[in-house]
Each structure stands twice: as C-alpha cells, then as structure tokens.
Design brief:
186 residues; alpha+beta; six-stranded antiparallel beta sheet; 6 strands; 26% strand
C-alpha cells in the first residue's frame, strides 16, 4: 500500500479490533463487509478455481459467506458429520485427518488460499475427514447450496471443481492405503 497524499494511519492489533467490535455492534457489520470486499475478494481471486469465476459471481459468494476464527487444535469439521459449508482459508493452516481404527491418519495440511469441505458441501452426504486448526486460523464458510447455485451458472468452473475433487479423493485413497500398509506391515 502506498500513500498518494498525507495520511493518518491507525493500526489495531487483533485484540484491540476484537474489543472494538464487541464494544459497538453497529461497527462490526460494516467492517466485516469492508474486509470481505477488500481482503477476501483478493484472496478468492488468487485461488485457481475461484479465479475462473467472473468477479460478480465471486462477490455473490462473499456476500453470503461468514467469517470464522479458530484457535490452535480446535476442531472445525468432524468426520461423519452431515455436510454443510465449504471453507476457504483466509489465514493460517489446518490439518486434515481421518480416523482409522482408533488411529488418526494424517491426510493433508492446507494453508491460506485453499478450500476444504467443498466435496461434502457440493456432493452432499457425510464428511469423510476431520479438520482442525493449526495455530490461529481464519476461515470463510460458504453454504453448499449457495456455492452450488453459483457453480450451476458456470458449468465450466463446476467441471474444474469436479476434477479437483476427484484428484483429492484419489490422493486420500492413496494416503489411506499407505497408512494401512504401515499399520499392518503389509
């Protein structure tokens, strides 16, 4: 960011901003909308799948999205839960894992700019993996029905999501097979 004229910069850390938001609820909504319009839209546009959507479609997704924060090791989704939202990581990292006979099997580590939960959100059914925060994490959640509605208008982008979901499912099968091989010694 570069100033074009004299400016006064007010810098608030996360705790100060949270205190301000808790103190005056009327301030929260416009600030969240500003954040979604400026920061979230830029991050979504950098994601290869979302970049294929026209800007107005991304904005519609953002308008319906909710911002959530999670602390270290806090569960975000649990394997076996009913599908609902897809999540886009705004900041931080998450660990994706699956329970295999009482043993957690690491599947993936995702970071800002990546999606998770879109498979269950778009295809319905139950969650096939659990996700927990690694450190502080900030996410956007987008209802599966909202995402499906936008993707229905852009079948070429929906096809890209399908390819990405197929690739992820294939990678998960490979990791689960490797875990079974290690645990059973086969």
């Amino acid at each position: 960011v570069e100033a074009q004229s004299d400016v006064v910069l007010l810098r608030l850390d996360r705790e100060g901003l949270d205190g301000l938001l808790l103190g005056d609820a009327s301030f929260r909504e416009p600030l969240v909308e500003f954040y979604k319009e400026r920061v979230c839209e830029l991050l979504l546009a950098k994601n290869p799948l979302m970049a294929a959507l026209p800007p107005d479609s991304r904005r519609r997704l953002l308008a319906a999205a909710q911002v959530h924060r999670y602390r270290d090791a806090e569960p975000i989704v649990r394997e076996g839960e009913a599908a609902g939202d897809a999540f886009f990581i705004m900041g931080g990292e998450v660990e994706v894992w699956r329970d295999e006979g009482g043993f957690p099997v690491f599947l993936d580590k995702l970071k800002d700019g990546q999606f998770f939960g879109e498979m269950a959100a778009l295809q319905g059914g139950k969650r096939t993996a659990s996700v927990r925060a690694i450190g502080d994490v900030e996410l956007l959640s987008i209802e599966g029905a909202t995402m499906e509605g936008v993707l229905a208008e852009h079948p070429e982008v929906r096809a890209l999501f399908e390819v990405a979901m197929t690739d992820r499912a294939s990678e998960t099968v490979k990791r689960m097979e490797e875990a079974a091989r290690i645990f059973t010694g086969v």
